[in-house]
């Protein structure tokens, strides 16, 4: 515009150029405003489509959440049932183990008493035998002496022949 202003007479540049500038600005503003309106309309349309899709997805997510929650509840219930079954089996096994332990304890106690009785009987028998041996010991010693004399006499008798 500066080159055009040097070739145009000064009254035109003072009066007409500002008028033209102002008109160009108005036209440009109007054109931009129209373009902005078109863009705003397009953006609004896209926003509404996005809102529709978002609502659709939200409803699907809610449906999936409810299905997942139902499945979790079903799984929780199954797990609870299995835990209860396992607990009852453990209780049954504990009671069987207690019964077997009591039975084993009583059998062990019985065997211990039997062994103690047998040991006591064997002690008594051993003591009786030791007593008997102690009583016979002088007789055994005398018998050994007599046998030794007999042997000497037999040797003397053989020597004397």
Short structural summary:
The protein has 161 residues and is mainly alpha-helical. The chain has helices at residues 2-7, 10-160. 98% of the residues lie in helices and 0% in strands.
Could you give the topology of this structure?
Elements (H helix, E strand, L loop, with lengths): L1 H6 L2 H151 L1
What does this structure look like?
With 161 residues, the protein is mostly helical. It has one domain (2-127). It has helices spanning 2-7, 10-160. The protein is rod-shaped and about 195 Å long.
Average pLDDT reading: 86
Beta-strand segment tally = 0
- Largest pleated sheet: none
Helix and strand content put the structural class at: mainly alpha
- What's the oligomerization state? single chain
Q: How many domains, in number, for the residues? A: 1
Terminal CA distance reads 181 Å
Q: Which stretches of 5+ consecutive residues score pLDDT under 50?
A: none
Element string (H = helix, E = strand) = HH
Q: What fraction strand?
A: under 5%
> How many helix segments?
2
Label this structure with key terms.
single chain, 2 helices, rod-shaped
